[in-house]
## 1
Amino acid sequence: MSDDTASALAKPATTATKREPWSAYALTWRVPLLIWQFLFFVVPLCFLIYLSFWLVKNYRMIPGFDVVNWVKMYSKGYFWDAYYLTFAMAALATVVTTIVAFPCAYALSFKVSETTRRWAVFFLIIPFFTSYLVRIYAWQVIIAENGVINGLLSYIGLGPFIMLNTKFGTLIGYMALCMPLVVILQTFSMANVDRNLIEAAHNLGCGRLRTVFTVIVPLAKVGLIIGAVFCFILSFGDFVSPYYLGGSRPPTLSILIIDTTKSGQQWPKSAVVAVTMIATLLVVAFAAVATAYRKPK
Amino acid sequence: MTAPLVEFESVVKRFGNFVAVEHLDLAIHKGEFVAIMGPSGCGKTTTLRMLAGLEQPSEGEIRLSGKRMNEVKPSERDTPLVWQTLALFPFLNVVKNVEFGLKMRGLDATARTAKAMEWLERLEIAEFSQRDISQLSGGQRQRVALARALVTEPEILLLDEPLSALDAHLVIRMQGVLTRLQRELGITFVYVTHSQSEAFAMADRVVIMSNGLVEQIGEPREIYREPVSRFVAEFVGRNNIVEGAVSHLSRGKVALTSDIGTLVASKPAKLQAAQGDRLSFVVSADVMSVSDAKPRSENVVQCELISEEFIGSVVTLFLEAGPGVELKAQIQQRDIEKIDTSPGAKLYLSWPSSNVHILPQPQKR
């Protein structure tokens, strides 16, 4: 056996860089992050969890430690209805957004010049200049029963379609929220794909469309999944779209939080919903990131 | 004589205003090992990419087994290429990489794995079949890339500087692997490189390109000893080129008056030159003799030693023969002890007239 193979056998993994985790220099860089995460993530989260065990008597919150809120909330049918609805709508928005964004990101990555790509990314950022709420109001006008779309459709004798205050309206809102971000993330991940690998695929007999799915998607996997995760997280927690475009009935979890809080200072019960949402998102995000970085078998 | 496997006929390739390949006529026969060599930007890689269909010729025709290929998509050709970067798929393990071409041809999973394993064994890397690409050394990746390209048993293999990223000792070993494979398989190799040692060690024929044009096509020995142009003489090997005016012509000899004195060369039969014509003499550095005392020889030049360069057992001496005229001499390490090699030492260079190659006069293009 050749000596290069022998040396690789002795040292199979890539060489790990040596780090000194407790040097003063490393700590200086890390401390701000640790302080920030502690103050604005760990502390509020602990408080939120604690709050979910408080009691409400005569419209007043009493600090305590009782599982009654959890038991009550988890035994309600409407809570689970809202949970499944939110999860399903966010998942649907994720799938639809990812699929709709892909051709756009593909074109921006491979079919346009560098300059066009930079301008396109700039234009994709522009929606964020305007408040999300304002954009959703605009969508109300567009999809209303006597709105822009139905107005146009009436010319060809179609409609009117009821889109406002339906699940379809919610979906439109989620997509308006996530689409630019997902396109940007997908574009960046695909633009970094090594062109040699695409040519190598063609060279080995892989046609153009097939190369998209057998080579480009696996190479851009991390970016595609991160884009989808962002879409899911944003949609799952959003309350504007289901409220203003979805008509808030049936409620999603975010609307359930609003309703619960409004009805008699039920902050602890809202905390139960919120903690459940955070737990769900953590599980989904970890699972997705693990999938993204999983080594090929 | 059977028809050539590959034919380039008046092929031109332009990128905007830049002409990458200016006018290429080249025929490559079945089973040949052809190296295309030249400095960067000479059009050698573009030539290879056109053959693989990754670039379309702007003019002319490329034929493979007599069939016009210009419009055939890269994925519909059987012209596998070994990339300089190797272009192995990082999301697939070794055996899946090798299987890729077979999978695209619709072979079923068992058949293609068996076939891929056969090639991995042939290239002595079967034990790494389940590894990630990132877990392999440079030499192993090289072998995977070769296996992946050869697994479909093509008639022709294209190689684009595949050894340029390897350590020197691995390059020599891979050269051995490549020549052996080529002989055993009997398929055509087209090998693009800027390295003279790679091209000369492996190829049956070498194509020297410069600025999109072919300078010379020939066997390595021919190119080394009988360059047809100043460019080839300078690009290949360690050649000394001396220009001068013909001062004397006789049966069998040409004398040249140059900046470093009168030099004599054997007159080739086909040389047509008159007294006063300007000619260039090419003397390879390895035919030079170096001595302290003035030797008896047809061509003797006194020089001053400037520097020396050791590469293993061979030493290259850089000498100045006159203002601005630098000559190179390659001698064996064991011979150097006989002479004074302190910088500035006065040495005599000599060479027999039979070892002088006369450059053909430049032709008008």
Note: The first strand of chain A starts at residue 55 and ends at 57.
## 2
Amino acid sequence: MMNNQTLLKATNLTKSFGRGHTEVHAVNDVSLEIEQGELILIMGPSGSGKTTLLSMLGGLLRSTSGQIVIDDTNISTANESLLPDIRAHKIGFIFQAFNLLDALSVRENILFPAQLIPDKIKQANQRADQLIERLGLGKRRNALPATLSGGEKQRVAIARALINQPPLILADEPTGNLDSQSGQDVMMVLHDIARDENRSVILVTHDPRVEDIADRILWLEDGVIRDRKEDKHSWVQCPVCHMQVDEWTTPFTSAYQSKRYAFCSKRCFERFQASPHSYGAEHD
Amino acid sequence: MLKWILKTLWGQKGSVFSSASGVAFAFILVVIMEAAFVGESNQIVSYIRHVNADVWVMQKGVSNMHMATTFVWDWKAKRIAELPGVKKATPILYVNTALKSGGRNWFAYVIGLMPNDARAGPWSMAYGKSHPGQGEIVLPHVLAKMTDAKLGDTAMIADKKFEIAGFSNETFSMANSIAFVNFHDLEELISTSGTVSFILVDIESGLDKQSVAKLIEQQVEKVSAIPHEQFIKNDFQIAMLMGVEVVSFMSIIGSILAALIIAFTAYSQVSRRKRELAIAKALGYQNRSLYLAVLMQTLIITGLALIVAILISIFLLPLLTTLVPQITLVVTTTALIRLCMIAVFVAVLAALVPARIIANIDPLTAFRS
């Protein structure tokens, strides 16, 4: 149910770390627009700048240049002291590690950001109960995070992200620590949030299974958004074990002698790093 | 936020309890020091309070009893007794000196009592005679408990021996106890004749003490006449002045100790919870909210410690006085109010310690798994 109204507009966004010959562009001249109700995937290899981009869009990291406008608020020029308020009102965060507060129950965790908007706390209480039911946490409302499964924790995190009814949800690898069934459940919840509540969801992920539910996929590589081939996969051979691996989605990639290699696992990646000439030569 | 703080503290009951106990200990030290000082100061004016003369007359220029020396011609006592409105004028001899009993020296007010006049003598007796005859002395009962001294034993002032004839109550203090001897024995000991130290004046009922004191000063030359309440106040102030530096020093030490314990607790709590604080920041909490959270945490720990310290001060310190009779502890409301103020100050001070850590917490940390 997109209504074609731009919620987020990032223009010529660049984030550099270091200076002089050590300067690295984690994100390089990225521009993007996201409409209300849109579900966007940001994909790309590890170290491509996905989380850096998400952090800037969430007002947690200042860009080196460029600007970000969310819901008519330019967060690039906003005073540092205003950013927390903007985050509280306009952005909901979902983290890979769930990031629930250990001492608080499910319901209290969900309500934690609601205290930032004290005049709406009564409505927030009602909404928390609705979210708990909707996300299937009814029997766990008073449970502590330590007693929850990964999928339950992530559903609590989603409810927490929604409690202040922000127009934008940013999720960083929300299925990264979940088994496939829980991951699928979480993705469907995020899908419904975008469709049913007209919220924009930006999702950083390595998980190729979620591509089908996205409205758009942005492929980020070396800090730059690139066109992605129509094919959903680009199968290559891991140079170490010779298994088939999707070079677009694998987090393990490396460059050696001007050639790019993709690995099936961290183990193969580390073996290659230890002795690239043997595998590189073999591959050649 | 408050729920988060309370539940987090509850989750770390052990460490909170240890900190609160440490802080309570520091607070109790402060209370005990002050209580001991006030108790001793009260003991210093104990004789004046209990003897309860309406007006005290002494050598002109002298305004208190503690550590004072005063000489007044004995005929002035007779002169005062004849003044209108004066019911009775009782002269005493008085000296601040060391007396030896039970093999130890004790600093004491030694009061020389007129024969056959019990007006200025001990107000409560444990046992024995209340009015010492020639060569006799009445000592504090606590002293007897501490040294096993018995009636008939010998006590010495300078090189003069006295036989212990009685033991009185409420006359002991670490700073100065009160011993009673015969007027003429003390007169002989300090080699005076025809003089007294103080004249205790009782006035007719219904008269104003201030007016009678003024009349005495007008009618009798070279004497100071001070109403009872003012005389107590003068002595108490002197006692306070003498000990105020020690008490202030101990209060500062106790406060610093408490502040260090709370600061360490707050620092370690914040260090342990950096990740949760980063999450809170990422979700939209401002630094000031987190400072406030730490302040609330230090206030809660300090508050717990304060409650424990006050309860112990009120209910357990009196037991301590029973167990250790030579200590006089008086916990005043003023001391407890001051302790509360110290506690708030200490909590605020301690909350500042982890402020830098909070300011430096990067909300981006929340993204790192």
Note: Chain B touches chain A through 23 residues (CB under 8 Å).
## 3
Amino acid sequence: MPSLKELSKEKESLSGGHRLCAGCGASIVARQVLLTAPKPLVVTCATGCLEVATTIFPYTAWEMPWMHSAFENAAATCSGIESAYQSLKKQGTLPVDANINFITFGGDGGTYDIGLQSLSGAMERGHKMLYVCYNNQAYMNTGIQRSSATPKGGFTTTSPVGKVKPGKEQSRKDLTEIMVAHNIPYVAQAVVGDWRDLTTKVQKALSKDGPSFINVLTPCRLGWGCAPEKTLDIGRLAADTCFWPLYEVEEGVYKLTHKPKEKKPIIKLLKLQDRFKHLFKKGNEALLAEIQEDIDKKWKKLLFLCGEKSE
Amino acid sequence: MSDEKKGWKELPIGAILEAGTAKNYKTGDWRHIRPIWNKEKCIQCLRCWIYCPDSSIIIKDGKVDGIDLDHCKGCGICAAECPVKPVKAITMVSEKEIK
């Protein structure tokens, strides 16, 4: 586990002057990942807020070789670059012991939906790369459209709230579990707001001789309707309500990395976000209860998988 | 690197840029509240630094040495995360008041 003193000696890898919103969690995640990762690094990005806002021509906030090609192929791009480096090693152009780390960032749109096939392929082929999904649970960059990561009851412009519908009707996809099913050496769930947990997971992920995946929940002030300075508090509350449990699966073994001292009711988290405010109106009590039930059920299952006692 | 828009003949080949040039673009004027750092109160825990979304906490020899107001957007995360009590080492002040 790195200390802040050690990390502060690292060169800043994401410069200021990018155009993400004030208080955006995506750049917090990217900074912490990049500070922790052993250098040299090669980074690729899927289309998304992070990519768009950090690389407005002729500027770039990235301090390393960086590439974006499209929405759906960030993992494929990264795996191709990784293979090219391996080939250069074989050809003798690069020293055999050159240890380069390959990292991909994608939002939930570019990871859960559009880029899922290329991510799945890259993981299955076993490239030595870390894929970080900064998951703000909707297509925020294009104006808050629903994705398969949007939770039940959440408002987006394509899962609107009105007399007929109460926001998104479907449950979110569990991508972390889909990645676990790829039998890769390291899969984890983290949250913006716990730097120690995230940086430890990044270190572990990059120490593996194979693919790794970290799914980081990242509040979006615009899409979630929350105050910018609350970004981290909301992240931590998501872990404490078990809306977003922090755990890892290392070589197939499940482990909880944060067990809330007291599991908080989900309404505490939902109340801080405008995207859920309709749930507190009369007539939506059943939906609120259903959301809590879903979380309890999943939490119980996770406790079982992690070999923890059920509450 | 300048703000001037280049014609297609003057554009660099491909999109190979110098790294980290975004720092030449100032986002400090987005800010409506400004973080004020109190050096005496600061306990150097570096929490403000690790959580700043805009890489705007200046570090010198492993210690906080001020705030980069050219890039800070005034989100208030540094002040919210500052653990010093009862008065925090970073407080947010309205830009209007400063002017």
Note: The helical segments of chain B are 47-51, 77-81, 95-98.
